Amino acid sequence: MRRPAEGVWNAWPGGQLPALAVISAFFFAGGLVGCLAAAGAAGAGLQTLTDYLEGFLDAIRTAGARPPALLPLVWGVVRWPLLAVLLGFTALGILGLPLLFSVRGFVLAFSIAAFVRMFGGTGGVLAFLLFGVSGLVSAPVFFILGVQSLGAAQALAVRFLGDGRRNPIYGKTYWLRCGWCAAALCLCVILEYLAVPALVAAAAGALAV
Fold first, then answer.
1. How far apart are CA 151 and CA 188, in angstroms?
2. Model pLDDT, residue 4
3. Model pTM?
4. Quick one: average pLDDT of 64-69?
């Protein structure tokens, strides 16, 4: 019998690697679809995408390096990790978490691919500044929370199906991990508020749209 101290990682047989493999596969599958969607845009869809990106860049140039509104910024940073955490409190997270990661992969890849398609290499730089500066921190956080939530959801499903074991799912390590991830997301908010606007404004000014 497994010891309770082994923690939530072992809710999946073999530890956290199977859960990581599952969410990674769905994330990259969603990303592939996002890239194909951006590359395949044509006609009215392509014109709509072009108009949106041009309007977005015009708004950046107008705002300059001014920090964005704080509450929408915070929501933009925490919404995906928060959904991952919430899905870990229900057995339905077994289905919801892979779907969440596939949607996140699609949105991120589509956004990056759209910038690259419209503006070439400079668009790639702009996409990195928009999504990559804080993403270097927020992406690992998203995956860490996703892995432990998927393990927790699987453990809840096993209990629902009648497994007699009652080892703790949400132990001290689980909440400590959530706390460290929350601190990392606070760093992302600081970067998005103080550093990213100036970097993006400079890159947008270099684009001849």
1. 26
2. 42
3. 0.85
4. 72
